[in-house]
Amino acid sequence: MPILFTFALSQNQTFELRSHYGTRKLDTSALAKLINLCEENYYTQDFDERIQLKNIGRELYQWLDGKEGWLRQALAETDEQKIYLDLIQTSEAQALNPQTQRIALGLAHLPWELLHDGSGFLLWEANILPVRSLQQRQNNVPTIQNRPLRLLFMATSPEHPGVAPLQFEQEETNILKATKDQPLGLVVEESGSVEELGNLVRSYPEDYFDVFHVTGHGVIYTEKAFGKFLPQGKKIKDNTPCFITEDDFGTLAFRHGECQLAQAVWLCLRVQISLTATVETFELMYNRVPQGDEMEALLGAAAVYLCQVRGAEHPQLEELQQRSVKILAGAAGAQGIETQEAFGDWFVSQQLNDPEYFIPRLFERLEEIVGDGWLFERF
Questions:
Q1: What is the DSSP secondary-structure string of 108-139?
Q2: Is the per-residue pLDDT at 105 higher than 70?
Q3: Closest Cα partner for 57 from 110, 3, 8, 93?
Q4: Is 174 found in the same domain as 295?
Q5: Average pLDDT for residues 123-152, to the nearest whole number?
Q6: Under 8 Å between Cβ of 166 and 226
Q7: Are residue 286 and residue 237 in the same domain, yes or no?
Q8: Is residue 377 part of a domain?
Q9: Domain of 287?
């Protein structure tokens, strides 16, 4: 039979020890005293007094053994090499007063490995190992019944010259075939529009869907290859990764992750993120915004400024400054600035030399991009 001792709490928040031999009360003040002693001395690196270790082990042994000799009797009756200490109830108890709570949690952290029978430490002399149980037993956990997998499927395949049509009906068939042995709740968004997909998701309870399966064409946008597909007046920088979707009218649209990236830039401004990661994030955002947009200059000025205020002793400061200046120079070039003199005039006229202007303005532009799509609470 396993050697098992269970620590429990009575209704008046006193401690009891239970075994198959019976139940007895434990001295709460003695428990608190030993817990305090161990926290103050035993857990410090310079504590190695063998006599005091023995005294702690003897007291722990006496708690289990008691006047009745429970531990001695259990060790004599079995060849079991483990002493199981059930601390689940005390470690999970709720609504305790502060002193009782401290003892209840402290029991699990006592050095039970020091158990000493008066002749020697049980662990070292007899290879008897104390084993703590702290996690709730699984046999009382209610079984969660299986339910159909909830899958949302959308294919975005705009009918547009130069865009190969998707075989999305076949893809839907493949999904049903692959999940034929699994109950499936399949919902299909047929518009191909990201806006309509968002409306559909919001019409269901939060976290309703288990799987989102969205299929479409992904491209690396270049003006040469795809510029003819853009609406008049819209610009996307070359080498921007895009997902081809449809708008509300079924017209081809290029999607790129501006919303999420704008939030990353916002965090770089508000949180002490590494300077390398900050400049990289600003470069990514610079490559996403339309060429000639005010945001380019704001990003460049902010990157240069952050290098100045956060870059002290940074091992890559010179490189990061050069990359930041490159953003600013690109923004100037998009405005037709070609000479150093013109650059200086433009830099001052746009207030890019004043962080009290360009930092708040950059925040404004980022918030315009994100709208109500924030993934976190702003601070």
A1: GGS-GGG-B-SSSBHHHHS--EEEEE-SPPGG
A2: yes
A3: 110
A4: no
A5: 70
A6: no
A7: no
A8: no
A9: 258-370
